[in-house]
């Protein structure tokens, strides 16, 4: 479609404006998509980084961050169910973290039993402070923080560092990565026993009981039996709880909707700009389209010219959008550490970008194929 | 071979309706033989352009028929009319109607691009060669890659003629082809179209106010108020 190419490059300024509109739309779609995906991942990160097959939690608990205490003895009852190989516990709550300069920062403290974490070949693993030289021993009063939060928590390069959690002594002994919080309160990891003390929970209380199922037993069946044995709590698989948490944070808090709306808005802003640009390009060349009709061009040929114009602009805008998105996401990472751009997201955005350009051509196509060809005889 | 490649039979055309209805052509019958150059003259509003639109399948008569190469266009679908225009008719316009973003040669090739489905076997390179040869034959061999804005009026019209000729049509319809040209360029265009009627065996119909055409035409049809008032033969 040489005519399409020549038409759009003939007026370079208009072409540049069209491409810029598409670039902005592509950037917004990928950027907002990355925020949404990162948010989804972050909202279930703790759940996904455990090795448990089943999670037991208080009724109505929708996500990890807003847990309620449940009875610790449920773990003993759970171990009595056939197929259960073992249990572990996790507790969490917002606490005060006193920095070295005396200022305070609210953090989300997570305390987990050593066997809560996923096994070592898992891609994500819940960090638990370990005693040096002892794979099963926990380091007392030890904390682990995410590298992305060292600045906000004022943690220098050298560790350990004496701090306070809820006015009790603690030491930051290590850093982890991939656990940046989306809540604004950094995650801080401790052993279960220390966390119990920091949170001032009663020893007979816990918040989540994690259940591992013996090989050969169906997880669904063990879940059913556990739910029958423990009717006052909720039992779900790790995947179910992960999805529930993602749904809660994205749908019920409105955060996901807001992010998604921005991505959709990007699509419509792009659509408007491209429609306007393509329509004005078509109207500027309307007599040429009348000439094409007079010369015997079929409506299909004219549609191909206009859609090709739109698609060429779309592709140029898409690749330019890709080129600027990568550095922009890297620039945003210090502030939004959990932002995530899987490879398929930019690839996937090509489809809405081209659909946007295709939709933008509809009005132009209508104008061009209905133009009266006899118009060519008018000087 | 058909004696008359183009024919209008009792054609009437009106525009608008009710009190605003304007009769543009009334009961016009004309036959155009191959290898002839017919000049259609008449004052403004006499129906010349309407007649040309009818002959070019760009307009359908309210009454009567138009035959192109023996095909009654009244029974053709829009797609069939487009195909007739691609295959059988070459248009030359007063305002040239060239594509500003395309070079001279691309302006010619585009007609064959449109007619690609009708020209089995002709690849783009071959069609580009044909276009270059046509332009060279019209004295534009040094200006193949210039855009219309860089060409004079006469040169633009010669590009338009090359475009009309690339699909080797039997019929050439020209609307005021010399109106926008100086006398020298106008004369060159008259000679080219005359040559096409003589050597190319094309049926050439020209609508013009330009009296110079009279000496080039085999026949002159005079229209007034949508009716033929004179049909004279001989140069």
Task: Give the SSE layout.
The complex is a heterodimer of chains A (379) and B (235).
Chain A: H1 2-10, H2 12-43, H3 45-48, E1 54-58, E2 70-71, H4 73-79, E3 84-98, E4 104-112, E5 142-146, E6 161-165, E7 168-176, E8 187-191, H5 192-198, E9 205-206, E10 208-213, H6 219-229, E11 233-237, H7 238-252, H8 255-284, H9 286-294, H10 299-332, H11 344-360, H12 362-369
Parallel strand pairs in A: 4-8, 5-7
Antiparallel strand pairs in A: 1-10, 1-11, 2-9, 3-4, 3-6, 3-10, 5-8, 6-7
Helix pairs in contact in A: 1-10, 2-7, 2-8, 2-10, 2-11, 8-11, 8-12, 10-11, 10-12
Chain B: E1 4-15, E2 22-33, E3 37-41, H1 48-55, E4 63-68, E5 71-72, H2 78-88, E6 89-92, H3 104-114, H4 124-137, H5 153-165, E7 171-175, H6 183-199, E8 203-207, E9 219-224, E10 227-233
Parallel strand pairs in B: 3-8, 3-9, 6-7, 7-8
Antiparallel strand pairs in B: 1-2, 1-4, 4-5, 9-10
Helix pairs in contact in B: 3-4, 3-5, 5-6
Features:
heterodimer; A: 379 residues; alpha+beta; six-stranded mixed β-barrel; 18% strand; elongated; B: 235 residues; alpha/beta; Rossmann fold; six-stranded mixed sheet; four-stranded antiparallel sheet; 27% strand; globular
What structural category arises from helix and sheet content of chain A? alpha+beta
Low-confidence stretches of chain A: none
Order of helices and strands of chain B: EEEHEEHEHHHEHEEE
Total count of helical runs of at least 4 residues of chain A: 12
What is the alpha-carbon Rg of chain B in Å? 18 Å
What is the count of structural domains of chain B? 1
Helix content of chain B: 25-40%
Radius of gyration of chain A: 29 Å
The pLDDT mean of chain B sits at 89
Distance between the termini of chain A: 28 Å
Instruction: Give unreliable regions of chain B as ranges.
Output: none
Q: Please, how many helices of chain B?
A: 6
Largest interface: A-B, 23 and 34 residues
């Amino acid at each position: 479609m040489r005519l399409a190419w020549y038409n759009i490059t003939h007026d370079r300024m208009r072409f540049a404006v069209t491409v810029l509109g598409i670039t902005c739309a592509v950037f917004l779609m990928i950027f907002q998509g990355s925020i949404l995906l990162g948010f989804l991942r972050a909202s279930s990160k703790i759940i996904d980084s455990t090795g448990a097959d089943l999670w037991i939690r208080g009724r109505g608990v929708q996500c990890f961050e807003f847990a309620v205490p449940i009875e610790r003895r449920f773990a003993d009852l759970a171990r009595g169910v056939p197929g259960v190989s073992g249990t572990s516990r996790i507790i969490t709550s917002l606490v005060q973290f006193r920095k070295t300069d005396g200022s305070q920062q609210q953090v989300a403290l997570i305390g987990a039993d050593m066997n809560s974490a996923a096994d070592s070949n898992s891609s994500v693993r819940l960090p638990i402070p370990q005693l040096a030289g002892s794979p099963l021993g926990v380091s007392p009063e030890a904390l682990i923080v995410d590298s992305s939060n060292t600045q906000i928590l004022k943690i220098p390069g050298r560790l350990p560092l004496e701090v306070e959690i809820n006015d009790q002594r603690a030491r930051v002994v290590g850093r982890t990565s991939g656990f940046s919080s989306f809540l604004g309160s950094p995650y801080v990891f401790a052993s279960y026993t220390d966390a119990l003390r920091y949170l001032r929970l009663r020893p007979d209380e816990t918040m989540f009981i994690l259940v591992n199922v013996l090989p050969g037993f169906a997880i669904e069946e063990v879940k059913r039996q556990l739910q029958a044995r423990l009717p006052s709590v909720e039992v779900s698989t790790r995947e179910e709880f992960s999805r529930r948490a993602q749904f809660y944070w994205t749908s019920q808090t409105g955060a996901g909707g807001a992010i998604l709306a921005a991505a959709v808005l990007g699509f419509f802003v792009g659509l408007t700009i491209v429609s306007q640009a393509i329509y004005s390009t078509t109207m500027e060349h309307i007599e040429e389209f009348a000439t094409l009709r007079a010369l015997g061009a079929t409506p299909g040929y004219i549609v191909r010219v206009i859609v090709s114009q739109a698609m060429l602009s779309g592709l140029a805008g898409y690749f330019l959008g890709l080129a600027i998105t990568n550095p922009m996401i890297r620039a945003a990472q210090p502030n939004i550490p959990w932002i995530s751009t899987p490879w398929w997201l930019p690839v996937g955005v090509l489809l809405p970008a081209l659909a946007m350009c295709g939709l933008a051509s509809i009005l132009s196509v209508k104008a061009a194929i209905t133009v009266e060809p006899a118009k060519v005889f008018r000087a | 071979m058909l004696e008359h490649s183009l024919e209008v039979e009792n054609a009437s055309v009106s525009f608008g309706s009710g009190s605003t209805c304007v009769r543009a052509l009334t009961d016009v019958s004309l036959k155009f033989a191959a290898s002839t150059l017919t000049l259609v003259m008449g004052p403004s509003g006499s129906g010349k352009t309407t007649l040309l639109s009818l002959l070019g399948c760009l307009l359908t008569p309210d009454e009567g028929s138009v035959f192109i190469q023996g095909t009654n266009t009244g029974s053709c679908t829009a797609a069939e009319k487009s195909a007739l225009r691609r295959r059988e008719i070459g248009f030359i316009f007063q305002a040239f109607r060239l594509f500003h973003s395309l070079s001279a040669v691309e302006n010619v090739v585009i007609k064959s691009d449109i007619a690609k489905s009708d020209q089995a076997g002709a690849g783009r390179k071959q069609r580009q060669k044909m276009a270059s040869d046509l332009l060279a034959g019209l004295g534009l061999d040094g200006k193949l890659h210039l855009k219309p804005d860089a060409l004079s009026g006469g040169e633009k019209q010669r590009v338009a003629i090359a475009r009309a000729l690339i699909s080797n049509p039997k019929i050439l319809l020209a609307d005021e082809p010399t109106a926008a040209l100086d006398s020298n360029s106008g004369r060159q265009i008259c000679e080219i179209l005359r040559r096409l009627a003589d050597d190319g065996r094309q049926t050439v119909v020209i609508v013009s106010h330009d009296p110079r055409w009279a000496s080039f035409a085999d026949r002159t049809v005079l229209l007034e108020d949508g009716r033929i008032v004179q049909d004279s033969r001989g140069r």
